[in-house]
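Encode chain A's predicted structure.
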Amino acid sequence: MAAGDLSAVEVARAHLDRIEATDGTTGAWLAMMADEALDTAADVDRRRAAGEALGALAGIPVAVKDVMCTNGTTTTAGSRMLETFVPPYDATVVARLRAADAVLLGKTNMDEFAMGSSTENSAYKVCHNPWDTDTTPGGSSGGSAAAVAAYQAPIATGTDTGGSIRQPAAVTGTVGIKPTYGRASRYGLIAFASSLDQAGTFGRTVRDATLGLEVMCGHDPKDSTSIPDPMTSYVDALDRGVEGLRVGVVTEFMGDGASDGVKAAVQHAIDRLSSLGAEIVEVSLPHADYGLPAYYLIAPSEASANLSRYDGVRYGLRVDGETTHEMMAATRAAGFGAEVKRRIMIGTHALSAGYFDAYYGQAQKVRTLIIRDFEAAFDKADVLVGPTCPTAAFKLGDKTADPLAMYLNDVFAVPASLAGMPAMSLPVGFDTAEDGGPLPVGLQLVGPMLGEAVMVQAAAALEADLALDLTPRGPRALALPESE
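Encoded structure for chain A:
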């Protein structure tokens, strides 16, 4: 676009056409902003022709997860409870994308209120993985990951509470980044678990995802948990290489929890980092095994409190009843799906009198131990690595009847979330599906607090070395666009 070979309007129309042609298969989108996107693109073209200064994402199409408020466009959080909710303001991360002259295409599908690992908990439609449309694109940000993998958008936003950016990125062969907790504003994000939720990005390359993240991050006085420390440039770190970098392989993540195909791809990536000049060291997170049970007490507890606001009185769905109590009960019964109800009940029980100290209080003590484990690990290493997920993408419907099996998909992602550390997933190889088709495998990289730059530095060097073909292919893959 800067060279004049393409206009922003042409780029926007190409992506909107791609969405129209393929979303019947992917199910990645819940609402489109086509007219607004074309108007923004036309304005970028006009300003570029006039020689005016443009933002870092000028003319670049971006998909927005439907948990982020968008002024004038429906924001549902994948739930019937908010089916008609139109926010009168933008989330801070959305406002920053607009200020960078990004072209917002629309809102992407997700697990209801960001609760899930497969996007099968969406109240509206199931989302499919472009690599194998019979498999899940992960969750809760599955729509954003699928949109990027399907060439429907080059960059997408997501939110990560316990792996909801990293896990979808891993199974769709995309790059997904979660920054340090508090680095990206939560203002205007529909809350799931307030001490864990964090906005981030997806891209088909480390550079794309990093550029989007840098635009979105920074202090926001509207968010009391926003970090006031000044930012360093993440993009500037991408070309530094890994010579002399200490890469810590997490022992607990390389054991029996991951499939053979995942471990083989991850080990190959570690070997390549070594060949590039990184120093490989072993580190331990002794309490990582307790991360998942601690997470599934802390997150549902916070969810039960956050979702108490959906009572049929103030906004959102309302189902009438003869009394206020009956109205609230009927509204919540009709508005929430099964997984959301399950987590509300778990959280309410964990916070109830007589159980608070035994459950929620104990889980917070485990969280402190995990934070200390990370601090000790970063005394030995500059960045930590391991598998993002135990397996490659699994079949749609395989785990919906077994919530515990579904929760295990986040076993490697949850510790970094509990500790508030920056973390990302980078595609590093493939596992083989039952029919012989390739399914992507993700390497998780975890940086120290506010260590996004060193994390993307290592990821960019490894990405360049591996030079993988990350175009979906296989017997059930989504067809490629006719023209790039």
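The chain has 14 helices and eleven strands.
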